[in-house]
Amino acid sequence: MTADKQDNFTIATLRERPGINEIFFEQKERIWPEFMFHDVYADKLWSYVYSVFQDFQLYLLNEKQEPIAVGQTMPLIWDGRMEDLPVGWADSLVRGTSDYDAGRKPNTLAALEIAIQPEYRGQGVSYRMIQAIRDLAVSYNLQAVIVAVRPSLKSLYPITPMERYVRWRRDDGAPFDPWLRAHWRSGAEILKTAHPSMIVEATVAEWQDWTGLQFPESGEYVIADALAPIQIDRAMNLGRYIEPNVWVHHPITTMRLSKDDYFKV
Fold it and tell me: Which of 1, 53, 143, 251 has its CA 20 to 30 A from that of 104?
């Protein structure tokens, strides 16, 4: 994709384009595996994203005004300390909705998701969406953007602990993972593992339906697109997936963390 072609792309919010979330959902079903739609907290709280926070949902439209990417975000309160970060992705939803319900004024923007139509990947769209989210934070005078990043290649290394994976680097010193690298090149600090970030619990039959696999006995199983193995308990008829992510911080003001314990990548 040439820069000129991207110049014809525009950003619109959900409030500006009501119903665009339903149009783009077909793409989401192509992007994410089925189990990703069943986090225990998202099932309860995701409605806030499309109702209360319409101004914080950014859609990238191509020259035909078709949505090709989305940046879903939610404002919340974070005091800037490592220990005050939400536990992970799901906890961002909990904190953002709790802050809203309590009438607290947010100071930080949590990016919940950047999803890109597969045909547009590898063409600079990820950087465009990261910048759009940063610009959104600036427009609301927020101090930072925080992201519980789902590293794009981690599913190829599900046995490797996230704490080790996040330290992998290329020869040029950049992060090994393309999605972490995009944030890093956009000026972000890679902080620490977000764990547990997402929790999916379902019956064994549901997991078998979602994955196309059979789970004959209790134990750990590696499944496609998961960042870590799932736990199957046949006696309890329960499959449990706990996903680790990586906290990334985009400073919007001059605030930057200076802790010694964040990942040096």
Answer: 251
The dihedral sign for the CA sequence 183, 188, 189, 195: negative
Are the C-beta atoms of residues 61 and 82 closer than 8 Å to each other?
no
pLDDT over 90, % of the chain: 88
Amino acid in the structure at residue 73: T
Residue 250 predicted with pLDDT over 70: yes
Please say whether the beta carbons of 231 and 217 come within 8 A.
no
112, two tokens: 């919940």
Per-residue model confidence (pLDDT) at position 42: 87
Q: What is the DSSP string of 184-237?
A: HHTTPEEEEEEEEEEEEEE-HHHHHHHHS----SSEEE--TT-SS-EEEETTTT
How large is the average pLDDT for residues 205-230? Answer: 98
pTM, two decimal places: 0.90
E strand or H helix that includes residue 71: strand 67-76
Q: Which two tokens stand for residue 188?
A: 């972000």
Contact yes or no for 94/45 (Cβ under 8 A): yes
DSSP 8-state secondary structure symbol assigned to residue 264: -
Spatial distance between the Cα atoms of 48 and 60, rounded to a whole number of angstroms:
21
**Please, what sign has the CA dihedral across residues 185, 28, 41, 223?**
negative
pLDDT above 80 for 263: no
